[in-house]
Amino acid sequence: MGNPLRVLIVEDSEDDALLLIRELRRSGYDPRSLRVQNAADLESALQQHVWDVVITDHNMPSFSSEDALQIVKETGADLPVIIVSGSIGEDIAVSAMKMGAHDYIMKDNLTRLVPAIERELREAELRRSHRLAEATIHHLAYHDPLTGLVNRHEFDRRLQEALRSAREGEETHVVLYLDLDQFKVINDTCGHQAGDQLLSQLALVLRDKIRSHDTLARLGGDEFGLLLEGCPLDQAQQIAEGLRKAVANFRFVWEDKTFSIGVSIGMTPITAEARGVAEVLSAADMACYTAKDKGRNRVHVYLDDDSELQHRHNEMRWVARIKEALERERFVLYRQPMLSLETGQGERLHSEFLVRMLDDDDKLILPGAFIPAAERYGIMTLLDRWVVKAAIEHLATQYREVQDLDAMGIFFINLSGASLDDSEFFAYLRQLLEDNELPPQILCFEITETAAISNLQLAVDFIHGIRDLGCSFALDDFGSGLSSFSYLKAIPVDYLKIDGGFVRDIVGDPMNYAIVQAVNEIGHVAGLRTIAEFVENETVLATLQTIGVDLAQGFGIALPQAIDDERLACPA
């Protein structure tokens, strides 16, 4: 059997049609064909069947190739049309090509037929791939790639519109903030893949319980937002309670384990007095944390006179712990090496500094526990300063012993968006480099894609200043929004760190593979080096190498190690 090919032949001569079929079979195809010879039959065939190519004669009784081209064009299908004619003048051929014909072939030279068909099939497939890629990028600019829900950027935009409506007295709206209870248990017990699957399934559960015109969004991690437009507060409470019950009744099955979870929901009405999106979300967020403080798996409503919410005792305790840990030097630096995926080059070593907190029993506290509180209460710059100071002093000690930049390598340090907004942070960093006499080219600072594009001009100015010092700069978690592709022309960075959420499942998920490939290609076109995060096994590593990613980082490469641990070694 040859390769199947669905061919629609527009031809009044049965013998000529058979010659076309024979030529296709001689070239290794198994043509599945239909011959039509008038407009009505052509329209019917196009509507009822899927075709790979249309081959049409030029002159037929009361019908021509121009008529056939027009009918195919009106269907909107990207379908190659090839004219095969016994005689056709050059002017007619040019006119047909302008109308949309992809080639014209003389009947006495059918050896050109198959090469022309194969060429046009390749071109049509490329066009389909490009359309799919464009549609994917456009979709991901406004949607969360894991759950398919609206993303944070689009949710903020719709919330802004709801605020305008409330100020103009048009309608009453309510915002809900949902945070899953015990999600971390599943993530830690079964891994990130299980956590991602749980989020995807819960998105469907939640979406089934809201109205068609409501906006459900994934705001990040295991947190969701819901905008109820034109909804009185009492009705919103009924919807919130329905969501809570739906999550409580849901059972998540992973391998041989079954889990039940809950959800804490905070909600607040959108009033004309609200100053902005940040204030509304903060109120709903505070209500959500109060629901957690009261025992989880419940709904709490934020009202202006709710003094309990104003204090946020739980998070304030974290703030106190962070400040105490800074004073008592209870933070420690870890370092995680990266692996170069390029071969045949003398590659400098790359690694990233990571921060951990120590509790009173010297047990490690991972940043996911204390970073959110530091960010929410405006003390993230204090933590950034500690990390920068500790890293520079550590590297300066090493450099005085080695005195070799190539042997030292390049070290990445995370900065928060708050430090970009700190007018004194840049001067602090510059003074640290001067005091410690550390060559700046050893350092590469990184901020998340979201932090960079949320205040683009501020980020660009800060990055220019960092690079003028001689340091490098990287965009972290790149690809999580994909709305920032166009900003790469404006943001002067050296590295793109591809969001680990796409990298982790790159082998089994064609969409994630396409996204990683697209980010890598766009990064290289922009002259940047690419780094894949969350590389957890050799299969993912081999796939990244095939794609052409420059560097890889993750537990499959090397575990983070304390900087004073002599066992630490960067991969060669």
Description of the structure:
By secondary structure, this protein is of the alpha/beta class. The protein has three domains: 3-141, Response regulator (Rossmann fold, 3-Layer(aba) Sandwich); 152-311, Alpha-Beta Plaits; 335-356 and 380-562, TIM Barrel, CATH 3.20.20.450. Helix content is 47%, strand content 22%. It is built from 22 helices and 25 strands. A hairpin with a 2-residue loop joins strand 11 and strand 12. Residues 566-572 have low confidence and may be disordered.
Question: What descriptive keywords fit this protein?
Answer:
TIM Barrel; 22 helices; 11-stranded mixed β-sheet; 5-stranded parallel β-sheet; 25 strands; Alpha-Beta Plaits; 3 domains; 572 residues; disordered C terminus; globular; alpha/beta; Rossmann fold; 47% helix
Name the CATH architecture of the largest domain. Alpha-Beta Barrel
CATH class of the largest domain: Alpha Beta
| Main sheet makeup | 11 strands, mixed
Q: What percent of residues adopt helix (DSSP H or I)?
A: 40-55%
What's the average pLDDT? 87
Total of DSSP H or I helical runs spanning 4+ residues = 22
Q: Quickly count the domains.
A: 3
Radius of gyration: 30 Å
CATH topology description of the largest domain: TIM Barrel
Low-confidence stretches: 566-572
Q: What percent of residues are in strands?
A: 15-25%
Distance between the termini: 51 Å
Strand tally is: 25
CATH homologous superfamily of the largest domain?
A: EAL domain
Q: Name the structural class.
A: alpha/beta
Q: What is the general shape?
A: globular
